[in-house]
Amino acid sequence: MTFFSKETTALNRTNLRKLALEILHSGIERVLPENEMYNNISVSDGSISVFGEKHSFSGNLYVIGSGKAAAIMAGTFEDIAGVQKIREGYVNAPRSFPLKKIIVNEASIPIPNERGYRGAKKICEIAKNAKKGDIVVCLISGGGSVLMPHPVDGVSLLEKQQMTKLLFEAGVPTYSIQHVRKHVSKMKGGRLAKLIQPAKVIGLMVSDVVNPADVCAAGPTMPDDSTYDDAYDVLTKYGLLEDVPDSIISHIVRGKNRHEEETPDSQELFWSNVYNYDIVNNKMALDAMAGKARSFGFETLILPPVIGSTEFVTRMFARKIRDVRKRAKKYAIIASSEMAVALRGNGRGGRNQELAARLIGELSSDRTSVFASLDSDGQDYIKGIGGAIIDNQTARKAIFENISPGSFLDKSDSYYIHDKLGTLIRMESTGTNVGDIHIYLQE
């Protein structure tokens, strides 16, 4: 199996590039959710076993969910359980394909749309219908918060779309965005799990975040200890109070004044009826990448997760690259990050494309080296583009092509840089999503 296109395969102009792409591919293969689900989940009459833990139920089995991996997870779970055991199932995903029992509803990302809203209402309907003795399996993965929009009363979908766009353009970090989303949604911040009560909840997650688990898809089945005050503080910090629709500001202010119900925190008693499991996460991807790099003879360093703006992550990588460049031996740096990009113009690109473009000048021509950055779902904001790969000859080519990366980055146009330099990683959707992964190699 390969997720990379023929154009990306053609990027293997050097052995080091070939190895970098193989290492990235090994990380993605390790976190395909279907593999872990088949190995660790079983369903029999009246019980579900997850990682050896048995959950009994006497009533119906329902399946709901949302996220970039939701369709693959739904198909896998349906195969494990068998269609006869599932009473009803419905998930929101970026693309639809037919299953025997579970409906896969195609919704939009990165901006929510009407199809996602209609799907979210259907998911809520199933959740409300679940009774004591029933069990509801929730398939949650990265992107689930956008794909499952269900704003609170008094806030329209259009206003939710405007808020989402403003948060992205301001470069607000994911964990801060989720503080806001949780407090203007009927499902996020643990509200979906509460809605399902008194039925039992099994949350199966493919996590794309390096922060606490409740950040993934804004934690619809996780306790939420953030508050309306936190949501208001995010909008204040990034200067969005004047731009975000009045209905959203009014709702958050009412919440600050204790006139709106807070999201369910960890002290709520119903959490004893909710069981959440990480099916795959980015640590698993990084460990697989490190193992592959070592098999190629590289001394390997896995960095702690990096959180911040693309400028911050660039500076961190630049320091690490300078540190290891002095070493004579083959060396690999492997990492994951949670980056935010503040938009500056009308250009095209994504987090990983921008990070690679910013590091072009750091790969010295006197040391054979390569850096690749990839969104593990196969889409770095632009469909068909997973990220970018550069090496120690890229800066020289940029000069030859009369391309100044800085001038295009000032317009948030990292796509143009890589398109002209032939450094885009073109690929298909992977069916998983554990966030952004990175590899630096030198020899």
Fold and architecture overview:
The protein is α/β, with parallel strands linked by helices and 443 residues long. It is 38% helix and 21% strand.
Quick overview of this protein structure:
This protein is an alpha/beta fold. The protein is 38% helix and 21% strand.
Q: Give the total of beta strands.
A: 16
Q: What oligomeric state do these chains adopt?
A: single chain
Biggest sheet character: 7 strands, mixed
The portion of residues forming beta strands comes to: 15-25%
Span between N and C termini? 28 Å
> In one word, what is the shape?
globular
Report Rg. 22 Å
SS-derived structural category? alpha/beta
Mean pLDDT value: 92
The total of helices stands at 17
The residue ranges in which pLDDT falls below 50 over 5 or more consecutive positions are none
- Relative helix content: 25-40%
How are the secondary structure elements laid out?
Blueprint: H1 6-9, H2 15-30, H3 33-40, E1 41-44, E2 47-50, E3 53-56, E4 61-66, H4 70-81, E5 88-93, E6 102-106, H5 114-129, E7 135-141, H6 144-147, H7 157-169, H8 174-182, H9 191-196, E8 200-206, H10 228-237, H11 246-256, E9 274-280, H12 282-295, E10 299-302, E11 306-309, H13 310-325, E12 331-340, H14 351-358, E13 369-375, E14 385-391, H15 394-400, H16 405-409, H17 414-421, E15 424-426, E16 436-442
Parallel strand pairs: 4-5, 4-7, 5-6, 7-8, 8-9, 10-12, 11-12
Antiparallel strand pairs: 1-2, 2-3, 12-16, 13-14, 13-16, 14-15
Helix pairs in contact: 2-12, 3-4, 8-10, 10-11, 13-14
